[in-house]
Amino acid sequence: MPGRQLSGVRVLDMSRVLAGPLAGQMLGDLGAEVIKVERPGVGDESRFYGPPFFEDDADRTDLESAIFLAANRNKKGIAVDFTRSEGQALLRRLVAASDVLIENYKVGTLAKYGLDYASLKEVNPRLVYCSVTGYGQTGPERERPGYDAIFQAEGGLMHSIGHPDGQPGDGPMRVGFSAVDVVTSLYADIAIIAALYRRDANGGSGEHIDLSLLESCVALMSHHAMHYLMSGQLPVRRGNMAGGGGVPAGMYPCAQGTSIVITVGNDAQYRRFCDLIGRPDLAVDPRFAVNQARAANREAMGQALREVFATAPASEWQRRLAAGGIAVGQVNDLSQVFENPQVRARGARVQADHHSGKSLSMVGNPIHFANDPIEGYRAPPRYAEHTVDVLRDVLALDDAQVEALVRDGVVGSRP
User: Fold this and answer.
1) For 352, which DSSP code?
2) Which residue out of 13, 44, 116, 181 is catalytically annotated?
3) Which pLDDT score is estimated for 356?
């Protein structure tokens, strides 16, 4: 079973695609009862964001894309049509019995159906209501739509990534995965847990959390943003070479088509590093002897090291440098990542029983609790898999009431 840190907390996850569902998934990993609310007949659109889809020979009507499976484990799945008054009434009853609601609809959408925070706090004053939108609930652009790549562009992330100007392939570059969605989900979880703590520790009321992907991206810029705020200078794109701290730091191609990344943090490490790579002369070269000089002569330093590292494969350099206490890592593809002995030892790849009878591989939660570990995972729900169970168990509806709701199309259910 998942962890028990949030046991007793019930979450209505009305979000779709990635940032909101990831936030709900984390709460589910930590033991909350998370009820994913989807639209009848449609579901979460990310179910269809493929290929790849999980292969289920028994039922190909249940498409489950990789992105959907990545963000929806440890949840129950129901389908409710909130555009109808009967569906709104059901959701209000669920809200009355819940602690948290997560939604990522465009600003004003849920208010049209009486499902905004102002309306629902009258139903449950203790409700923690988390709104995740592109631009936030206020400001001149609050109604604009957007996806991860848009916020990487507008939030400064793309401008800070890429090859240096004047080099082949120069210019801004996006992070390959949906980094803004992921970091926004973590901010959402921090805010939700903080609001729950304040509510329960101080006997207070609920909270409306207003979280935007744009601001999350700006916050993700961290020390790069601080560099600009202090100096007024834009950070320089350095490709795979680090821009601050110790020098040398970055990626170096090695023999046999491999590469390593190193970070040499101070002058003492640098002298040891030079001995380990068989170039003690670089330690006394006045261009490189101290970190400030190495930073000023990055290109010359990089050329010297590229010549050295090209003489052996990355595995040999990693063995040699790691033995000498230098921070070093090979550049791995995902097949190598999941075969890495340390990754395997930490349980980063986990299995869940899929409804098809097959085993579903997933990325494990990286949080390790000593006293109350996360020990298991439930596969993401099939579309409307738990509608009937939730209506019976949470709202105490009888069979006739449930059958009428299904028949009238207010809720979706499985045959």
Assistant:
1) E
2) 181
3) 85
